Amino acid sequence: MNTSSIRTALLLLTLIVLAVGGTVLWQQFTAPRITEAEQQLKAQRWLSVLPEQHYDNQPLQHPLRLGAATLDHSRLLAGYLATLKGQPRAVVLHSQTQGYGGPLDLLIAIDEGGRLIGVKVLQQQETPGLGGKLVEPGNTWLQGFVGSSRQSIADTAWALKRDSGQFDQLAGATVTSRAVIQATHDALRYFDEHRQQLLAGGADE
Amino acid sequence: MNRPWLAAVSLAPLLGATQTLLQASAIALCSLLVIGLHRLCMTPLRKVLDGSAKLFASVLLAALLVTCLELGLRAWALPLSLALAPYPALIAVQCLLFEFALGNNARWRTAAMTLAGFASLCIAMGLTRQLLGEFANLRLASLLPGALMLLGLLLALYNRVRQRRAPSRRQGKL
C-alpha cells in the first residue's frame, strides 16, 4: 500500500465521519421543530372543520373513547371534544368510509344538539375531476349538509335524490356522493345514540 | 453519463414540482443551493481524489446535503415540503450528474450558466402554469401532461428568440 492510497482512505474516512456526524447533529437540532410543525399542521387541518366560535379549548388534546365504532356504512377512527367555557359544545368525529377509488376519510363536526356544523374531507383517492371535485377549492357541495340534523331530515331522506332521498349529488360521482351522505348520516346517528357519553368525554360500552 | 442524462433528470422536477410559482421558486432555489454547495465542496476534493474514490465522496456529499435540506424544509416549511414531496431528494441525482456531465476541470462559467438556465426555466414554468390554471381556468396546465406540452412550447419559444442571435446548428442544445 503506497502513501497516496492511504491518504485517500484517510480522507474518505474523515468525510464519512463528517457527513454522518453532520446529518445526525442536524437531525437532532431540527427534530423538536419538526414535531411542533407537524402538530401545528394537523391542528390546522383538523380544526378547520369547526367554526371558531364553537370552542376555546384544544380539542385534539381531548380525544374521546369511542365504543362500538363500526357503523352501518362507515367506521369511526377517532373523536374529539370541543368545549367552550368548560361546557361541551361539539364533537369532531373522524370517519372512514369506502369511496369510489379507495378509503375516504371525513371529519364530521356535530354540535351539542345533534346538528351538523361541518364536514371536511381529510383524505381521498377519488377520480380527479369527478369524485375529486369534493376537495377542489370553491366546491360548495359539502356546505349543503351544514345545519341539517336527524330531527330536521327524516332518516329515510338521508340519501341522494336518485335513491329517493333529498340530497343533490356531485355530477358524475354517484358512488362518492352516496358514501359521503351515508357516512355523515352514520355519524349523526352515532352521536344521537351516544350523546350523553360523548359529551361527558367518552362512549364506553 | 453526460448532458442528455442531466437534461432527463432535470425534467422530473421541471414537470412535477412546478404547479405553482411558489413551489417552482422553492425547487429552483433548493437546486441552486444544493448543487452550488456540492460543487463548492467537491472543488478541493477533485484534485486529491480520483476514480471511484471521487464518485464515493460525491455520493456522500450529495446525500448529506439533500438530507439536511429535507429536514430543514420539514422543520420550517412543512406544507411546502409535503407539496414538493419526493423532488427535493432527487436533487442528489442532479448533483451527481452535474458533477460528471460537466467534466473534471471545474468550469464555473458553464456550470453557473446551466444552473441559471434550469432555475429560470423552473420559475417560468411555475408562473405560466399558475396563470393558466388559475386565471385562464385551464385544468390541463396544472396536470402533468399539460406541463410537458407547456415545457415544449417554452423551449420552442426560446429557440425562436435565440435563432436571431445564435447560429442555427445550436438549436435544441442545452
Automatic annotation (TrEMBL), chain A:
Top-level EC class: translocase
InterPro entries: FMN-bd, Ion_transpt_RnfG/RsxG
GO terms, biological process: electron transport chain
GO molecular function per UniProt: electron transfer activity; FMN binding
EC number in record: 7.-.-.-
Membrane disposition: Single-pass membrane protein
Residues bearing PTM FMN phosphoryl threonine: 174
Cofactors: FMN
Ion transport listed as a keyword: no
Function statement: Part of a membrane-bound complex that couples electron transfer with translocation of ions across the membrane.
Record's protein name: Ion-translocating oxidoreductase complex subunit G
TrEMBL record, chain B:
Organism name: Pseudomonas wadenswilerensis
Topology of the protein relative to the lipid bilayer: Multi-pass membrane protein
Gene Ontology CC: one annotated term: plasma membrane
Transmembrane segment boundaries: 26-43, 55-77, 83-103, 110-128, 140-161
UniProt xrefs under Pfam families: Rnf-Nqr
Compartments in which it is found: Endomembrane system
Full protein name: NADH:quinone oxidoreductase
Keywords: Cell inner membrane, Cell membrane, Membrane, Translocase, Transmembrane, Transmembrane helix, Transport
